[in-house]
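Lecture notes, unit on protein representations.

Consider one protein chain, 378 amino acids long.
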Amino acid sequence: MTRQNVVVADSKSGINVAITMTVSNSSLFTKAVQKTRETQGGCINIPPKKVGGGARINAWVDSMRASSPTRVKSAASLSDQNSWMLRHPSALNMFEQIIEASKGKQIVMFLDYDGTLSPIVDDPDRAFMSDAMRAAVRQLARYFPTAIVSGRCRDKVYNFVRLAELYYAGSHGMDIKGPAKGSKYKKETKAVLFQPASEFLPMIDEVYKALLEKTKSIPGASVEHNKFCLSVHYRCVDEKKWSILAQQVRSVLQQYPKLRLTQGRKVLEIRPTIKWDKGKALEFLLESLGFGNCTDVFPVYIGDDRTDEDAFKILRDRGQGFGILVSKIPKDTSASYSLQEPLEARTLSYYIHALILFLYLLSHLLVLIIIFFFLINL
C-alpha cells in the first residue's frame, strides 16, 4: 500500500470516514496501483504528432456531432428501433426474468447520476434530482448496497444527492468513498476510501487553468473541474464553433501526454492515462463489500452515457447481474436491458420506484405485484 493511493478524508463532503486497511491491501487494490505505475508514460488517445492537426480536429468534430442525441435520433429508422429493442428489451417489461435470475443472490445497485438520476440540463451546476428520485434511492439503499458512480467530482455529486448511506465513486471511479457510518453489509466499521490518481492532481489543476483561458472566448463553453478529471461542456456552444473549441482543447493537451481525452454526451472528458474507469470502480466496490469472488452476487448498473459502457462490459464479462441503458434512441451498448430516456427527472423516478418494487418481491411481498403493474401502466 502507498500513501499516494490512500488519502485521508476531507471535510467538504460531509462524510467523515477512515481508511479500511483490509480493502486497501486487497488484490484488486494492489493491481490498481501496479496498473497506475505501468501507464505513467502511456500515450494519449489523441497523439498530437502522429496525426495531422487538421485531420485530428475533423475527427474530433465528427465524433462530437455523432454524439448529438438529435442527430442519432433522426438517423434511426423504426425498424432499427424495433431491432434494437429486441436485443435490449425494456427492464420494466422483463421484470419476471430479472426476478428469476436474481433469486437467492445479493443485489448490489450502481447508479450513474447525470441523465439517470437527474435530467440532462444546459447548466451542469443545476442538474438537480427530484425529491421523488431521492426518496426512491434512499429506499433502495435500505435493502441493497447502493453506489453512485459518476464522472462528476465526488463532493459535487454528494451535494446533489445528500444521502450519507450510499457509496460515492466520483471522477469516473477515481475517487471512491463509503458511507459515513460504515456499511451494514460489511463486518468492518470503517469505510472505503480509494484515490488511484492522486499524483495527477497538480497536473489536473494546471490544465484546468489553461483550458479556462483557452475557452473563455467561445460562447457557451464551460470547463468543469471534477478533481481527478476535467469536463469541457459544449452543449450550449454553436455547432459552427465546435472545431474552434476542439482546436483549443487540443492545443492544451499537446503539452500533457499523460492525459487522455474521451467523450460523453455533449462533453469532452480529460482524464489521467491510468487504467481505471467506472468498470474498475464497480469491481473495486464489489471486492470491498466482500463480493469480489462470490457466485451469489447480483450487480445491477444503470447508466446512460458512453462512460457507463465500461461497467456494462464488466458485468457481461463476469456473467453476473446486468446493465440497464437509459436511452430513448438506439445505441451500441453492452447493457442487457434498456429504459426510455426521461423527459424530466420525475419520469425516471417512476422507473426507479418500479425497479424497487420488483426487487421487493424477492422478499416475497407478493401484494406489491399489483402496485407494480399499476405504476407501469399509468
